[in-house]
Structure formats: structure tokens, C-alpha cells
Amino acid sequence: MEYAKVRDVTLAYDSFGDQAAESILFIAGLGTQMIRWTDPFCVELAQAGYRVIRFDNRDAGCSTHFTTHGVPDFNTLVATLMSGQRPDVPYTLYDMAADAIGLLDVLEIKRAHVVGRSMGGMIAQIMASEYPDRVRSLTSIMSSTGNPALPQAAPDVMASMMRPVPDPRVDEAAYLSVALAFARRIAGTRYTFDEDAHRALILDEVRRAYHPGGTGRQIAAMAVTGDRRTRLASIAVPTLVIHGTDDPLILPACGMDTSDVIPHAELMLIEGMGHDLPASLYRTVINAVLQVAGRTTSASDS
Pick from 34, 82, 259, 271: most CB atoms within 10 A? Predict the structure, then answer.
């Protein structure tokens, strides 16, 4: 793992493959770390001839945490937004997209294929709309546009997200039980839930870095960023939208809306996939990413 100083934050990152190859930048989702893009997934893409880069978003993993800002009060946040005012938050998704562009600057990468999942998909979309000369292609996975008319997460899923969880530094077993139950709930119905793999990943994240307040600040960043459809309509790079038909957190309608808004975007609905990327789907997703990346030309500015 390495570190890059980008504006007012330090980002933890690593990479796989030939540094001279075309780059694919992977962006993690809400409250999760770059290792959610697992080593086998990244290695397989690197073996296809790409430089694969993953990083921790601000307020996640080993990157800078905004602990001095505290955790937002969500009732106040919602009330402020409903009144038409802008809540006072430390950053928005636009700042997080600028972080990713800054990382490309540090790595001297002029243009990259950009892939994001969940909140990371929103950040990737903003990169493609606001920095069109820096993005070769866009793959948005299990994500959304910020359209307020879209259906919301299943009530029990939302309740689970907002419920306090045990501190793993005090009671690791209790934390694991809650985290595994949530992972199972959002995983979908068609693909076998690998409890051992999820347990190992959850523990890896906790032991790598545990700062739970960052998730609340990232939620606030999404809420304040709001509806991005007007800007997304300007995206001109090859775009793939991947979504699971059984996603209970960001519903399939959100993926459909994303593909409708972005001109010429291709929609790939995966039957039975939830808000999860199981190992059994790695090859499917990798092939799809390679296909959209292959629709671009010229490696000379990579």
C-alpha cells in the first residue's frame, strides 16, 4: 500500500499490473474500503493487460478521516434539505470525485477507465461528467443518479443501516454477527452467500482501519450532492451500467434511471444479484468492464 497527498487529504492506494498499461481506477462504496475490490478480482484484470488501481475514499480505510467534524445528525440534515437550505457538511461527492482526479494527477495518468460501485459509482459518474478529458470509459455498478423520485431502499435495510452496531474493539463477535446479517440481507437470492469470505473481509477491514463516523459523513455527502441527472446527461464516454435485479439497497430502477440519463449507456441487469459482488460473478463483471474499456481507442496517453 502507498499514500498520495491530494489537496487537503492523503489517499491510501495500491495498484496491480504494468504501470505503462492503460489504467482502470476502482472506487469503493459507502463506508467500505478499497479491499472490497479483492486481490483476485484486481489480479485477473491486470492479467488482461491493464494497470488496476484501487484506493480508499476520504473518510474510509487508511485515507484521511474527518473526525473533527463529528457525525451528522440525520434528522437535522433531512430537515435542512427539506427546507431548501444547504446543510453544513465537510464535503460532497464532488469533492470525492476531485480526490480521485487528484490521485490520477499524482500517478501521472492522463486518462483512466473508471469503475465504481454503489456510492463509488456516483463518484465515477461525477468524474465522467465533470472531467470528461480524464475518463476513458465509465462503469457504474449498483448505483444511482440522485433522482429523488426513485424508490428507496427496503425499510428493514434502511433501518439496519441506521441502527447502532457493536464496537468490534469491544465485542468483535457481536459486531461480526450484525455485519454478517446485513451482508446476507443485501446479497441477493441467486448466488450462494459465502459467509466465510464475508467474515474474512469484514475482519480485514476492521483490523486495517476502524473509523465508523466516516460512514455518516459520506451519507451526508451523498444527500447534499443530490440530483445529478442534468450533469450526467453530458457524459459522452462509453458507459456501462451494471445492476442486480435483487438489490434491496439501491433498487434496480436506480440502475435503469442511470442508463436512461447517460446518452448511449448500456444497461446490464444481472438476474438474482443483490447489493454485492460475489466471487462467482467476478468473471461476468470483468468481461463486461473489459468490453466497455475496449470500446475506447489509443493507449498513448495512459
Answer: 34
Residue 159: inside a domain, yes or no? Answer: no
CA pair distance 268, 270, nearest whole angstrom? 6
Nearest to 208, CA basis, from 24, 90, 62: 62
Beta bridge partners of 15: 53
Q: In terms of C-beta density within 10 A (0-12 exposed, 13-18 middle, 19 or more buried), how is residue 28 classed?
A: buried
Range of the domain at 117: 2-153+210-293
Distance CA 253, CA 150 (A): 7
**In the structure, how many helices (H) and strands (E) does the chain have?**
11, 8
Indicate which CATH number applies to the domain containing 266: 3.40.50.1820
- Single out the residue of 29, 52, 58, 56 nearest to residue 113, CA to CA: 52
Residue 4 in 3-state DSSP? strand
- Whether 33 maps to a domain, the answer reads yes
How many structural domains comprise the chain? 1
Residue 299: pLDDT band with limits 50, 70, 90: very low
Alpha carbon distance 235, 131 (integer Å): 10
Residue pair 238/137 in contact by the 8 Å Cβ criterion? yes
> Looking at the domain assignment, is residue 205 inside a domain?
no
Query: Hey, what's the cell of 137?
Result: 470509459
172-217 pLDDT tens trace:
999 999 999 999 999 998 999 999 999 999 999 999 999 988 998 9
pLDDT above 50 (res 298): no
pTM: 0.94
In a domain? residue 97: yes
**Cα separation, 262 vs 273, whole angstroms:** 23
